Amino acid sequence: MLLIRYLNLNSHIPFLKIRLLTSLLVLIIMFGSLGASLTKGFNLGIDFKGGILIEIRNEPPLAIADLRVKLSGLGVGEVSLQTFDDDRDTLIRVQQPDSATTSAESVINVIKQNLPETTEYRRTEFVGPSVGRDLVQQGIMAVVLSIIVISIYIWFRFEWQFSVGAFAATLHDIIATLGFIALMQLEFNLATIAAILTIVGYSINDTVVIYDRIRMNLRRYKARSTEELCNQSLNETLTRTILTSFTTLLALIALFYFGGAAIHQFIAVMIFGIIIGTFSSLYVATPLLLVMRLRATDVALPENPLENKPS
Amino acid sequence: MARASTFSYWLTLILVLLACVAALPNVLSKNARDSLPSWLPNQTINLGLDLQGGSYLLLEVDMEHVENRLYQDVLTNLRLAFVKARVQPENVSRKENIFTITLPSETSWPDISRAVQNETIYNGSFRTQSALNNVIFELDPALILSARQVAINKSIEIIRLRVDETGTREPLIQQQGANRILLQLPGIDNPERLKELIGTTAQMNFHLVNDSIDEPLTPTTRVPPNTIVLPLRSAMGLGAPQYIAVFRQAMVNGETLVDAQATFQDGRPVVSFRFNTVGATRFGRATQENVNKLFAIVLDNEVISAPRINEPILGGSGIITGQFTVQEANDLALLLRSGALPAPLDVVEERSIGPGLGADSVEAGKIASIIAFAIIIVFMVASYGVIGILAAIALIVNVIIMFALLSSLQATLTLPGIAGIVLTLGMAVDANILIFERIREEVAIGGRQLFVVLSEAYSKSLGTIMDANITTLLAALILFMFGTGPVKGFAVTLGLGVLTSMFCAFMVTRLLMLLWVGRDKSKLSILGNT
Asked: Which chain A residues are within 8 Å of B433, Cβ to Cβ?
């Protein structure tokens, strides 16, 4: 009756047997993501592009088409409108040309003058072009730094083959997530960077658990082939992987539906990331160990005749 | 860690109790909080602007202006130095921090260098360019850096004075980077007035009006070199812009103002001001020499009013009238009191969240977290039975400890931060699951004493859990370094969450398990075959 009984799998699924197939899948995902990023491009939020964002709420809802015409005719720059929540909430985005001489201040005032008196201003955001550029730089640095730091840490704690695997898996996750964001045209802002970094952390989490088990098995069963031991390790950790991913996913789905519009897209990215992170631990991080011909001797502990126990 | 000592169990218990006490203020009403005895913590979690409502402003100091001021002062000093050395330079020019002085042909540098260097008060080095009979003065770059820093410090001071007067609760004013200032104003979701107050340099000067020019004035009218044309501030921006010609050289400088107050004269709002002794003397002499003439009160190159000097003003105080509203008079008085900004400030980033959105986000965050929490607990109990309940208790303790840390560190909770808490719950569950799986395996090996089983399981899982959590911690650290505002809040809760979940998985769950299993190893059979 306890779930754990059903999950007391003692499974023997030959995960790595289909690794040629899954590697193909990985390549498709990679190229697809790169393709989507380059062709569809990213829906950059004002955090990176600079510009003005005003979120308003009107009861009764405004006639959006009319508003769009009116605001576009003000000559303040490119204006785009987006509504949600049955048109009650409207997102007004203004893209100021870089050489604009009018201050953001005056643009906001002009727009406010053209909105009804009863409008509730939920939030107003303005990012100047120089700050936007700075944030792009910082965002990229943060992602690059995280991959490097984590790879170094894994190198430190495990052998180099593991570090390469971890590096590749992390890179895979980031590219796939970027592709997802480009494909769905989700708004790319600072919160998205946070989601990407979290996914990196979570995926590594997953990968490390599996690596730890593989290393332990390699040391214990010196005679068996690496492929066999990898399969065994994956099976042994399967219960944990299913339970953890499932729990985290359920929690995130709750946040997705009940957390409100403000973190909606942030959570969407994270949900995708959890799934892709689990996949990469199985089919990117592990097969690479085989590609690099990891042997039991690579992970063997220094000889100590008194030491009998593994790990 | 073969076996956690009894000491560590007691320590865990004490820490958990402390955490409960520290987290307690969050569930009490304000009155209850205020009536707590002083030795008990009474701080609640600091809500971020996206949950409280408020404004975040990033200001950039116009450093070019600061540098130019410095160069101007250096130039003046250099000229003076040469004059004192009885030399009239043929030409002085500047490129960045390098000043090139062309000496007259009969002068040689070695003769005058000592005299000039004595009079030069700015750090720098002199060298010659003999072919052109030039002397090069290179200003020490450290002076430029320190001038910038002084400008920022002074700006922060002045901003603080101006913001304090508006009664904003706990504003945060901080330097960010080399030339930016960060402002966080909780509760102010419409910072228009504040932006105006901060955006005004508030440089006030008194100039004599040049009334010898007959023709109607426009910005392009030709005027003698000692005069400039300035716009007149008209009430409420009505009517065509008017201009006044004033002498370029200020009679009295606003730096000597010591006080300004908004008051009433003839029922109309006015601003009264007072000079210090130096200013008073100067003002007195200027008014004495110019009775019956008009003088202009200029604020940031705009003439506020141009009254006639009816009699010498020796007392060092006066009144500025100018068709002000009460608010405008108050603002002007405030600006004068706080002093002039050393350089213009530019708003380069602004985020204002209204209280409506803030409250909605808090609600949504609360509901979502509770649901997520409930799902996790149900799942754990369904999977692991009674042991799952233990894990659930540990999870609750985890949240309490997180709240305690957030409250006492006064770290900021943002909406992504709430997502971070939920995420760490997921990861805390992971740690527990890893341990339970290990326990299962150890139990399956069979035939050993209970404490051996448990201690083996815990020590084997330590390495894995540490590696897994430290990498998440690294990601959180990087996010913290590079993030701002809400993202920073996320990094904080994620990082803290990782630490608390490690603590709970290792100490709290173990304590609970020990208490429950007691000596009865068979209870572990829930986890698998014994």
From this structure: 239-240, 243-244
